[in-house]
Write a structure and sequence with these properties.
This protein is mainly α and 132 residues long. The protein has one domain. It is 83% helix and 0% strand. The chain starts with a helix and ends in a 6-residue tail after the last helix.
Length: 132
């Protein structure tokens, strides 16, 4: 059972680190990335702002010996919403990224989707040991 919890905690930690790094990068480099990706600078900055508290929350969950079940579910749902919003951004919004911007949005959405899937697997395999 401990191995399964360790898997979930490692996935949460990796998500926290990746989200925090992306948040810092988007905040610090929004003005540089915007013209390269052909995405609005404000959108990149806002995404960075959203990612920082999310990363802190996920890191907090990862640091617990027994991750809070409802918290993990919240992370899975937020990751799924991020993936959906990424697709909506590309196909149903006024944003018109260039090919590099399109690839950037797709790649980060795929990575976030993988995190959500791995977190779900980790939660399922950990069974009732996860505190509610």
């Amino acid at each position: 059972m401990q191995t399964r919890l360790s898997f979930l905690r490692r996935v949460l930690l990796l998500d926290a680190v990746a989200s925090g790094a992306m948040g810092v990068a988007l905040l610090a480099l929004a003005s540089v990335l915007a013209p390269i990706l052909d995405l609005p600078q404000a959108l990149l900055r806002e995404a960075g702002i959203v990612l920082l508290p999310f990363a802190a929350f996920v890191g907090c969950l990862a640091s617990r010996e027994t991750p809070w079940r409802a918290g993990v579910w919240a992370v899975i749902v937020m990751n799924a919403i991020w993936v959906i919003d990424s697709v909506v951004l590309l196909f149903a919004s006024s944003a018109a990224p260039n090919a590099l911007g399109f690839a950037f949005v797709i790649v980060q959405a795929v990575v976030v989707g993988i995190f959500a899937e791995l977190q779900y697997i980790g939660l399922r395999k950990s069974g009732v040991a996860i505190a509610s």
